[in-house]
Design brief:
The protein is mainly α. The protein folds into two domains: 46 residues, no CATH class; 146 residues, no CATH class. Helix content is 60%, strand content 11%. A hairpin with an 8-residue loop joins strand 2 and strand 3. The relative contact order is 0.09.
């Protein structure tokens, strides 16, 4: 039982930046709070540099998975995608174990936060929200029917992405997106109006 608690704590240290910093400042207090007795001394001897490096590697893996789930958002943001995701990951441990949950949580973070540099282009949050909704339906299979309204012309935007790379313009207009899944084994159907 003690070994399982030790392993869980090491995982938490590598995914929760605040807990890692607290542990490095006062390892005995953290291990006691987590209910460890026998292994507390061995955990206190962990090399801080190696813990930080492993935590960075896990953040990079999370970044790669989020970029795979949100490819157009990543392309539109360019190098800012990695900067914003790193800021998000330092504040937020992974929200779950399923691939895609981190990407959805990252988009929610972008919607709720006020980055120091405004997110441009103006349609970026519509695109990110659209991709997060797609991940929710196609990757996580959490919903049979999902309907979302977006304040930009996503059909034109997606077509421009295919043709030009990162499109220019404001893509004003409204879009209604619908995903419908009939069974768990089939790819959901998708419509844009």
């Amino acid at each position: 039982m003690e070994l399982i608690r030790q392993q869980k704590l090491v995982v938490q240290l590598c995914t929760d930046h605040a807990l890692l910093e607290e542990f490095l400042a006062a390892p005995a207090q953290v291990t006691t709070r987590e209910g460890l007795t026998v292994g507390a001394e061995s955990l206190a001897k962990l090399n801080p540099g190696q813990l930080r490096q492993f935590a960075r590697l896990l953040r990079m893996r999370r970044l790669g998975e989020a970029g795979t789930a949100l490819p157009l958002t990543r392309r539109a943001l360019g190098h800012r995608f990695a900067e914003l995701f790193t800021a998000y990951a330092l504040q937020n441990p992974p929200p779950g174990k399923r691939l895609g949950q981190d990407a959805i949580a990252f988009v929610n973070y972008l919607l709720q936060s006020n980055p120091t540099k405004p997110l441009n282009p103006v349609w970026l949050m519509s695109l990110a929200s659209y991709e997060a909704a797609r991940v929710e339906v196609e990757w996580l299979g959490q919903r049979k029917l999902l309907v979302r309204k977006f304040p930009h012309a996503l059909r034109r935007l997606l077509t421009a992405f295919e043709a030009d790379g990162v499109p220019k313009g404001d893509f004003s207009g409204w879009t209604l997106a619908v995903w419908c899944s009939s069974s768990s084994g089939r790819q959901p159907r998708h419509w844009l109006w």
